[in-house]
Amino acid sequence: MAVKLTVVYGTPEDAEAFDRHYHDVHVPIVQRYPGLERVEIARVVGGPGGTPSPYHLIAEMYFADHDALNAALSSDAGKESGRDLRNLPASGTFMTVSEIVG
């Protein structure tokens, strides 16, 4: 069953510096994941009705199955991205793994 890893990044103190590092350094590392089928990155612009959101970016990485995801995360690129995540300080950041059902 296809799965996705979702990372929701909290709003950083310096959004410009965060974005620069994220797009110039972190994304190229993630794009080296073996078995990565697709990446979507979305900027959060607010909640329903324009309410403020505590989140900045949502990244979704798609894989054929759990084994492919686990292989990607345990690869050299996966380990490197995990280390680099520390260079993206954003309070409230969290990750989820989801199975694609529709």
Description:
The chain is an alpha+beta fold and 102 residues long. The protein has one domain (3-99): 2-Layer Sandwich (Alpha-Beta Plaits). It is built from three helices and four strands; from the N terminus they run βαββααβ. A four-stranded antiparallel sheet has the order 2-3-1-4. α1 packs antiparallel against α3 and α2 (66-74) packs across α3 (76-84). The longest helix is centred in the N-terminal third of the chain and has 16 residues, at 15-30. The protein is globular. 17% of the residues are buried.
- The largest beta-sheet arranges its strands as 2-3-1-4
Instruction: Look at the helices and sheets and give the structural class.
Output: alpha+beta
**CATH structural fold name:** Alpha-Beta Plaits
Helix content: 25-40%
Annotation field: number of helices? 3
Helices and strands, in N-to-C order? EHEEHHE
Strand percentage lies at: 25-35%
Provide the descriptors you would attach to this structure in a database record.
single chain; 102 residues; alpha+beta; Alpha-Beta Plaits; 3 helices; 33% helix
Task: Describe how the helices and strands are arranged.
Elements: E1 3-10, H1 15-30, E2 38-43, E3 55-63, H2 66-74, H3 76-84, E4 94-99
Antiparallel strand pairs: 1-3, 1-4, 2-3
